[in-house]
Write a structure and sequence with these properties.
By secondary structure, the chain is an alpha/beta fold. It contains eleven helices and 16 strands. It starts with a strand and ends in a 14-residue tail after the last helix.
Length: about 325
Amino acid sequence: MVEVSDGTKVPAVTDTKPSRTGGARTRQLEAAPMSTFTIDTSTSRATPSPVPGKRTTAPSIRARKLREGNDFRTEQPIVMLTAYTMRMAQLLDPHCDMLLVGDSLGQVIYGLPSTIPVTIEMMCAHGAAVVRGSWHALVGVDMPFGSYEASPAQGFESAARIMKETGCAAVKLEGGEAMAPTIDLLTNRGIPVIGHVGLTPQAVNVLGGYGARGREEREAEKIIADAKAVADAGAFCIVVEGVMEGLACDIAAQVAPPVIGIGASAACDGQVLVTDDMLGMFERTPRFVKRYDDLAARISEAARAYADEVRSRSFPTGDQTYRPK
């Protein structure tokens, strides 16, 4: 057991890894006192475990934005990242207000050409994993293409299934004025909704690509109208994606729910990025992404080192094999 800063004792094991100089380095693996995992001392793996804690709720997110005169403002920006797996949720949860199980998993996890082929079964499986791996952040799950557009009734049926099978706290759907009746029905039937306007990837075939929206005045006015319609319908926050910066600022100032930007503006009430983009898992970095690591290169280097040791028969060593005592 290891004692952490508040005096709580938590499980710990020694993790032995080769150092760059050829020796071995050890470090303690710890489970934080309010984490969602315990350390399996036989494997050093983090496994989900129920822990006491209060999750962030949709009303608490909505309450972060206050009226100032004729405008609205959020004092502390809302932090959101995407998560698709239990382990990633465990790592992101302490730092985020919201975790989004985005339909971007179609491209990131499954190698699909767009989000359009993503199914509700995919969203439910990954949503449940993220809920199991988190205790603090509000978990929202994207409603995939074709699961809600036909009618508010279809939207409710799909959203109810997602919430039942995942345990998530909210669903996200794309679209503006056309989706307002669906958002209104969901919110009045107990399902918190995250809106999504601007560049809506599920509509890529209509939009003609993933370029920034709102360059022309007419389109900018339509996006503002969409955001207001989604807000009036009851969405507790709204993702605004891929729009001109000035337009994002106008939307954030004019609608009551918090506006979460992605490719929008630092003036938004919060930000969201695809975690794999932010970590540098892909060679191409979208313009609106800041890379906080180059994880792809580090993974490749680790795999190369492993392959070299296997081929030279220098792995496994006595530390990784079982021998009579």
